[in-house]
Design a protein that fits this description.
Length: 70
């Protein structure tokens, strides 16, 4: 699972705030849950159309849909 410390170190290295960052992933239990625990917005790429058990900021089925978010 993604650890908050890893996210915090990455944010410090990039000198950016959580408000300017978003995690994108297709695995609820690692990337998405880690983003949630770190307080980051998240995009769940649900290309397998699985039942979403963890809420995400955005959900897309295809990466092409990210253009609509950004």
């Amino acid at each position: 699972k993604t650890k908050n410390a890893i996210v915090e170190v990455a944010l410090r290295m990039e000198k950016s705030s959580k408000k300017k960052r978003m995690m994108i992933g297709d695995n609820l239990e690692t990337v998405i849950e880690g983003a949630s625990n770190a307080g980051l917005d998240m995009v769940f790429v649900n290309h397998l159309n699985i039942h979403q058990t963890i809420p995400s900021t955005f959900t897309v089925k295809h990466l092409k849909e990210l253009e609509e978010i950004f």
